[in-house]
Amino acid sequence: MPYSPDAQFDKASLRSEALARRAALHPNAREAAAEAAAANALAWLGDVRGEVVSVFTPIGTEIGTGPLIRRLREGGAAVALPVVVENGKPLIFRQWEAGVELVASKGPGRIVIPAPPETAPAVVPDVLVVPLAAFDARGNRLGYGAGFYDRTLALLRGAKRIEAVGYAFAVQELAAVPAEPHDERLDAIATDAGIVRPAED
């Protein structure tokens, strides 16, 4: 979908719609969906031994990543979490070993996100599991407006091959999400209903 001057307005309304759907999910349904999405993600990723996979710690009503982290570690992947360095800058990633307690870290705006301690090694991921507010079948992602993942994916993709996998509830899929020139498209979206493989333009 080409960019239009109304894209920001469209994004705000679409974001609200998708987040309302997400928030309406029953707690029991959310737990089952997180397990299903984790199984689907691992089936799509395949053998993750030796790979560095960045996940995220869910904020608010985001899909739980605990089942995914467990499966990644069982599969031999090194798990990392994103760290905000500064607004307007790409993310960095720190490895998160099992049993290491997370610490409070500055997120976008006033948000505080759990992150590995500063003593944890910085790593460059092979796979980014990306949070989102909404997505469409073309692999367009609607985030929360700060642009961290777009900047980070552009930087990483310029340096190496990397897979970007959106991770969300199936109810967050919309018919179309506005795409601007700087928006980085996802390689796939893992949901409780299965894997969404982006359609060609």
Automatic annotation (TrEMBL):
Pfam families referenced in this protein's UniProt entry, alphabetically: 5-FTHF_cyc-lig
Superkingdom as given in the UniProt entry: Bacteria
Example of a GO MF term: 5-formyltetrahydrofolate cyclo-ligase activity
InterPro entries given in the database record: FTHF_cligase, FTHF_cligase-like_sf, NagB/RpiA_transferase-like
GO biological process, alphabetically ordered: folic acid-containing compound biosynthetic process; tetrahydrofolate interconversion
Amino acids binding ATP: 11-15, 141-149
Catalyzed chemical reaction(s): (6S)-5-formyl-5,6,7,8-tetrahydrofolate + ATP = (6R)-5,10-methenyltetrahydrofolate + ADP + phosphate
Entry's EC annotation: 6.3.3.2
Family (UniProt): Belongs to the 5-formyltetrahydrofolate cyclo-ligase family.
PANTHER family the record matches: 5-FORMYLTETRAHYDROFOLATE CYCLO-LIGASE, ATPASE INHIBITOR/5-FORMYLTETRAHYDROFOLATE CYCLO-LIGASE
Descriptive protein name: 5-formyltetrahydrofolate cyclo-ligase
Annotated organism of origin: Starkeya nomas
